[in-house]
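C-alpha cells please, single chain.
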Amino acid sequence: MDNNSLQYVQYHSSKESTYLAAIRQLISNDLSEPYSIYVYRYFLYQWGDLCFLALDEKENMLGVVISKLEPHRGGPNRGYIAMLAVQKEHRGKGIATKLVRMAIDNMIERDADEIALETEVTNTAAMKLYERLGFLRSKRLHRYYLNGNSAFRFVLFVKESAYTSRLGYDEDEDQDEPELPPSA
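Here you go.
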C-alpha cells in the first residue's frame, strides 16, 4: 500500500461508534499507559477537531494523533500532543509525520504559542520524529509512566514570545540599558 491510497481525516464525534474502538485498540497496542475510555472521551469530546486519523482504502485505521489546545497555567496558549500511534507494519512510511504535522498546523491556525508532549526515553523513533519537526527536549521526567519508565518532555515554540518568556526575557523591555536602583 502506498501513501496515495491513504486518507487523512479529522475526527468527528458523529463517527465515534466507528472510530473509538479502533483508536483505543491501536493506542493500547503501542503505548505503555493503560488509558481508560474516559481519557479518550476527555480529549475527543473537547478537542476532537485536533485529532486526526490515517485510514486505508477500506477505512481501517492505520494511525491516530490525539491533541488538545488550551491556556497553560494562565500563560501561553499550549497545544499538547497526548497520543500518537501507527500500526507496526505501516511505520516508516511518513504516516506519523503527516498526522503530527496536521495537528501542529491546526493548533497554529488556532493561535498556539507552543506545543508540548512527552515520550518515553526508550522511544528513539518518536524522539527522532519530534526533533525532525522542530521540537526541543525541555526536561527529563523521572519515572513518569506507570511502567516506571522515564520520559522526555518536548516543546515546539511556535511564537518567539513563548520561547523568550521561558528565558525570563520580556521582549518589550529595553535590554540595552541596565536597570538602576531607585535613588534614595
